[in-house]
Amino acid sequence: MIKPEKMINGTKWIETIQINAEEPQILENQYGIDEDIIEYVTDKDESTNYVYDINEDDQLFIFLAPYALDKDALRYITQPFGMLLHKGVLFTFNQSHIPEVNTALYAALDNPKVKTVDAFILETLFAVVDSFIPISRGITKKRNYLDKMLNRKTKNSDLVSLSHLQQTLTFLSSAVQTNLSELNRLPKTHFGAGADQDKIDLFEDVQIEGEQVQRMFEIEMQVVDRIDHTFNSIANNNLNDTMKFLTIWSLTMAVPTIITGFYGMNVKLPLAGLQYAWMLTLGISVVLIVAMLIMLKARRKM
């Protein structure tokens, strides 16, 4: 969808959301955007990047934003969004219709401090980077909850939730890292050339925010990994205890089987003719079982 034109202090802004198969042709015909650029900026598998075309004087920004698969369960991946400065017109591409990107764009539009299109871009990037923070706080709460639940009793559903949390952290932590790398590179590119003090301050603000978000996700990754490692160890210990119990139980049951097996043969055996021979076999079994358990206890196998 190509939305109606808006103005950012004299600069046209063309907003696109989930453009269909026909709309790239409109962008190409009406605004002269190259087909390859449209394919590039709408590719959902693209990573963070900044490209400056010296011939066309075009600037292309691609950054990653959080995309909710299941917001209540805190299952997130990341999707790219793009901004293109082409012939003095700003185009934004939100092909995945990411709510955080829409919010960031309109927050920058409504910000009275935004006087230039460059400031609009940097304020948008700041808001997108900032959108990772509530997710990080939600992950912290869920991690604490899972930690308590797993300490009480390990359930498969809690382990699955912990696994989903690790997947979310992997996606978001990687996105935060690549975004920060590109944010640190931007001042050294054509976009940062000849920046005035206000623009330098915006660069510093968004970089500081990116570093803060990166630290938050690094800490969460470390804590969740340690929780996962701890409960893997607990699960292994529980399995070892179960196997030890089953082994001792099987050894205990093997003793009467052996004794009764001997006296079940159709041959004459010592004491087999006694009136209470069955009690004798039972007594022998009990004595051998007790002796075996004492031996295992003495050797600390129990």
Automatic annotation (TrEMBL):
This protein's UniProt keywords: Membrane, Transmembrane, Transmembrane helix
Cited InterPro entries: CorA-like, CorA_cytoplasmic_dom, CorA_TM1_TM2, MgTranspt_CorA/ZnTranspt_ZntB
MF GO annotations: metal ion transmembrane transporter activity
Transmembrane regions listed in the UniProt entry: 245-264, 276-296
Topology term for the membrane: Multi-pass membrane protein
CDD domains: EcCorA_ZntB-like_u2
Pfam families linked: CorA (PF01544)
Any one cellular-component term (Gene Ontology): membrane
Record Gene3D superfamilies: CorA soluble domain-like, Magnesium transport protein CorA, transmembrane region
The family this protein is said to belong to: Belongs to the CorA metal ion transporter (MIT) (TC 1.A.35) family.
Name of protein: Magnesium and cobalt transporter
Phylogenetic placement of the source organism: Bacteria, Bacillati, Bacillota, Bacilli, Lactobacillales
